[in-house]
Write a structure and sequence with these properties.
5-stranded antiparallel sheet, 2 domains, single chain, Immunoglobulin-like, 289 residues, ZP_dom
Length: 289
C-alpha cells in the first residue's frame, strides 16, 4: 500500500523459508515486523518512508514514481539475490517540484534585482542534452524568475517568435508563436502551456514545426514578472482548447480575458523597471535544429 510519504508491504513466506526471514530485504531494509501464521506460513511486514531503503525517484510528466526491490539473499551481499520482486509507488504531488524546475538552475540572466531563466527540457525529466528536435515532437520550454526575497511573482511569456538568427533586427524574418499574449501555436497544432507547479515558472509544451526559413531556429521570448493578482488583457497566458476555445492558464473563470486573442488586445503600459509589480526580460533559446 503506497501512501504519500510511506509504503506498507506484506510478503507471505512459504513454511520452508520462515527460518530465513532475516534474509528478506526491501532495498537495504529488513522487515519491521514478522508474523507466524497457523498454517505454518509467515508474513514479513515492511513499513518505511519512501525516503528510506534506497528508493529511487523518477519524474514522468505530473507523476512522481518511487522504485525499489524486494529481495531474498541467502548468501552474502556480494552474491546476487536468489529472488527479486519489483516495487513501484506513484502519485501526483501537490507541491513537490522536481529540482530542475526550481528557479535557480539553468542559464540565468539578471536585471534590476530579478533573475530570469529559459531552457529546453528533455521530455520533462531534466535539461535537454541535444538541440536536434524531431519534426512534430514536443519541445518543453521552461521559463522562470527567481523569487528570492521578492513578493510573489507570476512569470508570463509575453511574446515569442521563432527566427533564423540569435538577434532580431527590424527586417528579421520571424514566425509568431505567442502573440497578443496568446499561444497562437495552440490553434495550429497541439502546443499548450502545462499546468504550473508554482507561479514563478511556466512550461511551454511546444510542438515542433517546420519554419519558413530553414531548419535552424532561435526562440525569442519576452519574459514578464508580474503581480499574480494583476491579470488583464495585456498580462495573461492563454491556450486554445479545441473543444471550448480560448482559456486562461491561471484561472479559467476569467477566460474572457482571452476573447481578444484573435483580434487586438488592449495593451496596458508596463510599470517602470524599478516597480515592485513588474519587469520584462528578453530571452533567446537556440540554435534548435
Amino acid at each position: 500500500e503506497c501512501q504519500k510519504e510511506t509504503v506498507e508491504i506484506t510478503w507471505k513466506i512459504h513454511p520452508d523459508f520462515v527460518k530465513h526471514a532475516a534474509r528478506l530485504f526491501l532495498g537495504n531494509c529488513m522487515p519491521t515486523r514478522f508474523n507466524l501464521l497457523e498454517t505454518g506460513e509467515g508474513e514479513a511486514h515492511f513499513n518505511y518512508r519512501l525516503d528510506d531503503c534506497r528508493f529511487r525517484k523518477q519524474v514522468k510528466g505530473k507523476w512522481l514514481f518511487y522504485h525499489n526491490e524486494l529481495t531474498y539473499r541467502p548468501q552474502a551481499k556480494t552474491k546476487p539475490a536468489a529472488y527479486v520482486y519489483p516495487i513501484k509507488c506513484a502519485h501526483k504531488p501537490d507541491v513537490w517540484v522536481p529540482s530542475f524546475l526550481n528557479p535557480g538552475s539553468g542559464v540565468s540572466e539578471g536585471r534590476g534585482g530579478l533573475v530570469f531563466q529559459m531552457a529546453l527540457l528533455n521530455q520533462l525529466t531534466g535539461m535537454a542534452k541535444t538541440n536536434i528536435i524531431s519534426l512534430g515532437s514536443f519541445m518543453p520550454i521552461w521559463a522562470a524568475v527567481e523569487q528570492k526575497s521578492h513578493q510573489p511573482l507570476l512569470l508570463l511569456m509575453d511574446e515569442c517568435v521563432a527566427a533564423p538568427t540569435p538577434e532580431l533586427q527590424p527586417g528579421s524574418q520571424v514566425y509568431s508563436i505567442i502573440g497578443n499574449k496568446c499561444l497562437l501555436e495552440s490553434m495550429r497544432g497541439n502546443s499548450r502551456f502545462l499546468p504550473r507547479y508554482h507561479s514563478s515558472a511556466v512550461i511551454l509544451y511546444l510542438q515542433s514545426f517546420k519554419p519558413p526559413f530553414g531548419q535552424e531556429v532561435y526562440i525569442h521570448c519576452n519574459l514578464v514578472a508580474w503581480d499574480p493578482n494583476g491579470l488583464n488583457e495585456g498580462k495573461k497566458a492563454c491556450n486554445y482548447v479545441k473543444e471550448t476555445g480560448w482559456q486562461l492558464l491561471d484561472n479559467t473563470a476569467y477566460s474572457s480575458l482571452c476573447d481578444c486573442c484573435e483580434s487586438t488586445c488592449k495593451s496596458r503600459k508596463m510599470r517602470s523597471p524599478g516597480s515592485k509589480h513588474g519587469m520584462v526580460q528578453n530571452a533567446v533559446l537556440g540554435p534548435l535544429t
